[in-house]
Amino acid sequence: MALEDYRADCVSCSRCSYCKWIPFDHVKSWRFSRACPSIEYSKFQAYSLGGRLSVALSLMEGRSGYSEALKDIVWKCQTDGACDVADKICRYNIEGLEVLHELRFRLVEEGQTLPRHMAVIDNLRKEHNTMLKPKAGRGKWAEGLDVKDLTREKAEVVFHAGCRFSYDAELHNIPRTALTLLHKAGVDIGIMGKGEMCCGGRVYDMGYREQFTECARNNIRAWTKAGVKTVVTSCADGYHAFKRLYPELGANFEVLHTVEFIDRLIKEGKIKFKKAVPMTVTYHDPCHLGRRGEPYVPWQGKRKKIFGQIPVWEPPKPRYNGAWGVYQPPRDVLKAIPGLELVEMERIREYAWCCGAGGGVIDAYPDFSLWTAAERIEEAKSTGAEAIVGACPWCERNFMDAVKAKDEKIKVYDVIELVQRAI
Amino acid sequence: MALSREAYRALEDIVGPENISEEPAILDSYAFQWLAETIRPGQSKFMPRPEAAVLPGSTAEVQAIVKTCNRYKIKVKPYSTGWYFYCAPQTEGVIQLDMRRMDRILEIDERNMFAVVEPYVIAATLQAEVMKLGLNCNVTGAGASCSLLASATSYHGAGPSSIFGGENNQNLLSLEWVMPNGDILRTGSLGSGLGWFCGEGPGPSLRGIVRGMLGAKGGLGVFTKCALKLSPWPGPAELPVEGTVPAYNSPLPDNFRAYSLAFPSWENYFEAYYKIYDNEIGYIAHRQFSMLGTELGTAFWMLYNDPTKTLDDIEEFTQKPEIKKLTEEMKIAFQIVLAGLTPRHLEYQEKVLDEILADTGGWKVAAMSQPAMERFTLLYLIRLGHKNLNFVYNGGWLGTFMQAGPPDYVKGYRHIAEEVTEPYQKKGLLVDCGVDAMMGPVGSMGGGGNCALEQFGYYDVADKESTDAVVSWTKDCVKGAIDKGFVPGKGSHYLAMGMTREQRQSSYASAPWLGMYRWQRKIKGIIDPNDIGDELYPTLDEPGK
């Protein structure tokens, strides 16, 4: 697909502003009614989904050209998809998030890139990670664990740690605990260790389609060689890449986030809690596990018009509107922990506020990224919770940094850490 | 015509460099508007590009901007939530004021039942806040996404709940207004330093001047704050919401009921309106679900309530026997929500409604009273958060006629709407959804007496022929109305957007209310001496000038 293929999507934007707000039915207060960090931070209309559709059209029609301002509009956005969910409350025929991606692909293809993103891409090419770190340090997080190395052995399940968990030492306990839990539950599981390659999901969101494809093909090849049937990850970004993007390249693995796997093991009686965790927590839905974590549905079709002027697809096109993301398993895991009370924020599930780290924003616009996280921390605090719990290392890192920057008291946990406390 | 550097710097000094831009890409996001394609050369989606976008954060900043515009003779076009081609600059050489930084609910006076809001406060957020206090606001027909201040000061402001909560043009109390000459005027009780509670006094009562015929649509200065009358809300402090996106629904308590009421004939249908007015029942009453066409709409609503389906499945839905039957049943129907302030109040309304149905031969559509559909209807009509489903078919719709008045007046125009629409649908130029795609409030003016029907034409905004057709259809609608002795209606306002100044003057001169345009010229002459507002505040030139 190319940007021009989405011209009708751009033209048919109704400029209604639904994309700026959470679905109106769910608005519970003035304070937490906004959906899109980008427009809230940058304010000008161009920084909303509707605005970006008009900017894309302006670019296609040659009304505006490349400029630093245009690049800022295109990349100062987490591609978190909240706009897409809200927009699709009323629209079946606009794929807003796809347009945002195509706009990025176009700029990258034309060499209109951001230096901070290029540093990430250069490192990915050389060192196979997006953390600006050397390849050699990739497997350190798993040192000392008795686990299969799937670069040499075979297993049914591969645990993919991902770039953030691999290189962020403060978070290493989370993948180590997840892996140990699954191993102890009798799962035939292994890791790629220092041979693990970035999932590519984050660079896809940044607009680097080719680099994503290269990462994906490498991973698919390595897993196939190791006899892998199931891919498990604790990273929401990785989950989205494996679940939604890899199948387009022919991958055929079962994909599970650890919260799904652990929820399954709890329900099967293979994980039992022994200790109470007396704590009130609130759960943050990572965008890539929630609204963007819907399973890929194979589809090919063509456009036709019915009833005179209704453009539709034949056969019906799958609809990605956040309805079928992973929302309940993490909540069920938390609710199963003795003594733990789960309280909800106002913006949850398909209309959750983003942590701020996605879409290359943490790399190129750290202040905006932290501002977005701080907004979520405010919302978490409003529930009275002692901790905000996530299921993605990017969210957790951003929340931890925001808490530190604002000298807040609220704790930040991964679901796995609370499971570990209860066992 | 770029702004002079001096003028730009003056504006930048007021709002700060982060709140002003003249980048082409940013400006085009302001020029892009719904309906632009119906009036712009080459069906462009872009209205004239503003010279700059400016985001003021306070009344003082707005006043300084307006004074600067007077000094440099720059036209200024403010918008709140900014939806419609009315909101964009109408000509070159205009700066766009985007009011989104002024987004606060300043006060909710629970006892006196009003709220004070800034321009970017939308209906959904004010409603959510006032519901916590047992109050509600009238959500304008354009839906929950829209600015309440804009609906009250600058446009019509009617909606499904107007039968109980009034129209927002009526709900407008005191107002803070930066007039085009840069003076600040505080109307009503606010003008006497007595607070926001009254729009008419003690203090200057200028509602007529502020609003003109249908609101100045951003053409007469900047309204920076206003107070809005609220009404009682007999429901929970927070709307309970269930269901899978997009078909959310609300399991409200037993003192709420939602019905679709169907009738054997239009005579019976409109007779029921009168009886509803006379008996003062109903919290919300609107002909809503027919907006997607009486032949296709029912299939759509059923499809919409199945989150596994998409618009691509609509043909399949139209073939289902139960939907065919329901489509027939729903052809002459409207929706009503009853809300009991007490159990006896609800019981009374139910009894009255049953009597009205018995008298008029109407009935409650059983399929729409099933719990899931009733809960969907309740949430839909109370929050109006799905209102933009009128874009669902193809991104393009145009509402015309909008005949407002007593039912006996409005009902006569239905035939015109259908006759004019039929050939366009049959040729496949507009969506063939049924010649009756009319929607409108059952009763406005706080209890009835006045209703409206607006006929919708759905065109594919990405299709040149279809877009041409909707313009032609609108012209035919206006002509059809005039030929049969009706006022031209909303479509004429849309068409006027595409006229030259000379054409517009000619149109005003032949309007039955040309005196109003003359008076507005006098008003504008006094408060906008440098002509910084645009032509959406219509004025008729003096003869010979």
Indicate the topology.
The complex is a heterodimer of chains A (423) and B (545).
Chain A: H1 7-11, H2 37-42, H3 49-60, H4 68-75, H5 82-87, H6 96-109, H7 115-127, E1 148-149, E2 157-160, H8 163-167, H9 173-184, E3 189-191, H10 201-206, H11 209-225, E4 230-233, H12 236-245, E5 254-257, H13 258-267, E6 279-283, E7 302-306, E8 310-314, H14 328-336, E9 340-342, H15 361-364, H16 366-382, E10 387-390, H17 393-406, E11 411-414, H18 415-422
Parallel strand pairs in A: 1-3, 2-3, 2-4, 4-5, 6-9, 6-10, 10-11
Antiparallel strand pairs in A: 7-8
Helix pairs in contact in A: 3-6, 13-14, 16-17
Chain B: H1 5-15, E1 20-21, H2 24-31, E2 52-54, H3 59-72, E3 75-79, E4 94-98, E5 105-109, E6 114-117, H4 123-131, E7 135-136, H5 148-153, H6 162-165, H7 168-171, E8 172-178, E9 184-186, H8 207-211, E10 222-229, E11 231-232, E12 256-262, H9 266-279, E13 284-287, H10 297-304, H11 314-318, H12 321-329, E14 333-339, H13 343-360, E15 363-364, H14 371-383, E16 397-405, H15 407-426, E17 438-441, E18 451-458, H16 464-483, H17 490-496, H18 501-509, H19 514-527
Parallel strand pairs in B: 2-4, 3-4
Antiparallel strand pairs in B: 1-2, 5-6, 6-10, 7-11, 8-9, 8-10, 12-14, 12-15, 13-14, 13-17, 16-18, 17-18
